[in-house]
Amino acid sequence: MAAEFEAACKALEPYEVSDPVLSKYGYHIILRLPPDADALLFSSKGDPVTARTAAASAEYNERLQVRADGLEADYAEGFEKPNLLDYILG
């Protein structure tokens, strides 16, 4: 980790956002997350979200997208415009 980046991280309190920090890799704006992965990040519509759940959700979505990108679909004739009455009455 670049020394400037590390120093800026250590100077922040959890959930605090830094001013732009210049390192040999460029400029960074840092949001310091709490060290406890189960600490509450925010609450959305009454549902608590922790760093652990946010990371797990991001990992799941990435894996799902990789899997979906590799899928192919074949369509049966007539599939594009099915008649729902055929299924209901049939």
Task: Choose one word for the global shape.
Answer: elongated
- How many whole angstroms does the radius of gyration measure? 24 Å
Q: How many domains is the backbone divided into?
A: 2
What's the overall average pLDDT, rounded? 83
Sequence of strands across the biggest β-sheet: 1-2
How would you describe this structure in keywords?
alpha+beta; about 40% helix; 2 domains; 4 strands; two-stranded antiparallel sheet; about 90 residues
How would you explain this protein's 3D organization?
This protein is an alpha+beta fold and 90 residues long. It has 2 domains: 32 residues, no CATH class; 35 residues. Helices cover 38% and strands 17% of the residues. It is built from 3 helices and 4 strands, in the order H-E-E-E-E-H-H. Strands 1-2 form a two-stranded antiparallel sheet. The chain has a two-stranded antiparallel ribbon with strand order 3-4. The termini are far apart. The model has no long low-confidence stretch (mean pLDDT 83).
Write the layout of secondary structure elements.
Blueprint lengths: L2 H9 L9 E3 L2 E3 L11 E5 L2 E4 H19 L14 H6 L1
Antiparallel strand pairs: 1-2, 3-4
Compact summary:
The protein has 90 residues and is an alpha+beta fold.
